[in-house]
Amino acid sequence: MELSISATWWGTCTVNTHKAAAPLPRIQIQLLRSQVSDVLQSACIKTGVYQCDISSLRQIEETIASCASIFPPIRGVIQCAMNLHDSTFENTTAENWQAVIAPQVQGSWNLHSCLPHDMAFFIMLASFVGITGNCGQANYAAANAYQDALALHRRARGQAATSIDLG
Question: Residue ranges of the Ketoreductase domain (predicted)?
């Protein structure tokens, strides 16, 4: 008997603690993807690596459609996309605020809206900062508190959801 479960991991991490933070070089990203893919494939797990802006509804829909053409139905998701840009509230620009909250707020909502409602799991990796707050991270705290609220919203509707506040 063959059991086929498709789980999706939406993960990205951009950390901008300084104005001119350098992203990981493309070669490092490709190497990490290759290593993860090799480990999973050695365990007979079929993998695919897709790049999209999780806060873009159109890109999420296109990516899910691409997955649907090769993989079985998605039965679970782990949402761990995030962006950091620390600054005091009065020094936070609207652009920086949006850049930090978009992956967690709009990204989580896009996944909630576009993925099947009967998934076995919907896990969002959040932070305790959403509960306790942290100096210079009002935007990040708001994004994490949103994920906690989205988990409650989904569970109230009988859907799987967990927000794990790491810290």
Answer: 32-167
